[in-house]
Amino acid sequence: MNRLPGLDLLRAIAIGWVMLYHLASYGVVMPVLVDRYGYMGVDLFFVLSGFLIGAQLLAPYTRGETPRWGQFFLRRVLRVLPAYLVVLALYFIAPSLRESPDIEPLWQFLTFTQNIFADYERARAFSHAWSLCIEEHFYLLLPAAAWLLARKPSAGKVAAAAFALLAGGMLLRGWIWQHEVAPLTGLPAFFTRYIETIYNPTWCRLDGLLAGVMLAVVQGFRPAWWDWLMARGPWLLAAGLAGVYVSMRIPSPGFAGAVIGYPLLAASLAALVVAAVSPRTWLGRWRLPGVAPIAAMAFSLYLTHKAVFHWIAGHFAPAVHDGGLLAFCVYVGAALAVGGVLYLAVERPSMRLRSARPFTQLDETRRVTTAT
User: Cβ distance 51 to 20 under 8 Å?
Assistant: First the structure.
């Protein structure tokens, strides 16, 4: 499979951003860009997933064919469930590995509803699975939406659906902020309410996925537009970085952040994704050493890093409590080692199984990017 170096780099940045953001809570000193804004790495993952999965699912439509839904879902199962279930089993079998004593009921993780029924104040163990829940919901919703729009396809219908989803999310978050979150301003429950009602639920966090899917739509159905974007990669790189900076300046949690912060960040990250694919930018041309392995292990690292940080903090206290360079190396080295083991032992074998027929028949011709 042809791996695009720019998308590998963005994936590596996304997982590194998230991991270091969580590492800051263990006393390791981080730059402001990480300490305050590392959560944006999840938004980058959403845009990447929207683009990559959208391109995969829409490829048959661009050829006038109907996707093989069974193969699509089976490939998603093989991509996500093996590594996820291994880590989930460890969280319940070995409670000492948990970064927090309490955890949501097992059924919420098995049904990918942990982000909907979250008790963030009490049960924070494996709480980062909320974003995986949204991804799983996306895998179910996108095929249904594509099938409905493809029955009588038109650019107007697609644009109207995208606008409705974007505007609906903004209105919904604004309403929730005003009625559920803002009344608790200054109270201990304020941040928890924000996480549980705006930050975690799927219906409030579709902006990044939508932005990525719209890139896939343009790439597949408007090749002239896509070529126009490719030719302006450097400008989109600058615009994307500027947009991310502006997003950082919008107070979050806050009304403006809830309403316009998410779509602005999604659009900015989408510009960076286009720049990463464009051969006109250094992102799209250069293969930086060490990036590809980190990108390949991103999912395994995401699943395991918080438990690893917790275990290191409990077993190497003298070495890591100073929060200095040694602590950084111990934490990150251990996370990379454990993530690498999960990737090599579970994730990569299951992905290789996806490469066996009949799974490869889903998308034989459109190999434009990294494994997702």
Answer: no
